[in-house]
């Protein structure tokens, strides 16, 4: 198994889990970011320690650059860790593509929430609903109250796009 394939196999389901968890709770477990970073570091190390070191440095730099945004409340701390973890598993050019794809996905997500404030009806729980229905009701409430975006959805989308593109190469 190549390093990239191993990273894809580990990162893809964890990105989906992180997005779902962020939607439901607005929290991303640290273990998700740690597992993605470790798989990425191991995958990059299979290409050589120089590649692994460069990706680790870029992941660290992203963390340092994004941390002030989290400290100001503009980005969640879990989002910063998840973005940085993904960068550890990607080549520098692929990290740039990941950031661009994530920003565009974030724009679509933000637009959906802005439109959703006016378009999503007020939903209520009557008891006995499925987990999906409960999450939908809470998310509709968050939209109307202008709550924070589940930005892991954008990060996961950007990450999955890049992993898909890399699978074709």
TrEMBL record:
- Keyword set includes Acetylation: no
What the entry lists under Pfam families is as follows: Peptidase_A24 (PF01478)
Provide the transmembrane region boundaries: 30-47, 54-75, 95-115, 149-167
The name under which this protein is listed is Prepilin peptidase
Judging by the UniProt lineage, the source's domain of life is Bacteria
Protein keywords: Membrane, Transmembrane, Transmembrane helix
Keyword Membrane among record annotations: yes
The record's section on InterPro entries has: Prepilin_IV_endopep_pep
* Residues of the Prepilin type IV endopeptidase peptidase domain: 10-111
GO molecular function annotation: aspartic-type endopeptidase activity
């Amino acid at each position: 198994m190549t390093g990239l394939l191993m990273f894809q196999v580990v990162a893809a389901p964890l990105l989906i889990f992180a997005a779902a968890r962020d939607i439901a709770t607005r929290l991303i477990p640290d273990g998700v970011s740690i597992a993605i970073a470790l798989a990425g570091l191991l995958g990059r190390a299979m290409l050589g320690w120089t590649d692994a070191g460069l990706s680790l440095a870029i992941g660290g730099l992203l963390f340092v650059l994004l941390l002030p945004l989290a400290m100001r409340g503009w980005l969640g701390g879990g989002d910063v860790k998840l973005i940085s973890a993904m960068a550890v598993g990607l080549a520098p050019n692929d990290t740039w593509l990941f950031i661009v794809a994530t920003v565009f996905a974030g724009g679509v997500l933000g637009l959906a929430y802005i439109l959703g404030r006016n378009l999503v009806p007020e939903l209520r729980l009557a008891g006995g609903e499925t987990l999906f229905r409960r999450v939908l009701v809470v998310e509709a409430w968050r939209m109307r109250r202008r709550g924070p975006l589940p930005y892991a959805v954008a990060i996961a989308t950007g990450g999955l796009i890049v992993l898909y593109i890399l699978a074709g190469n």
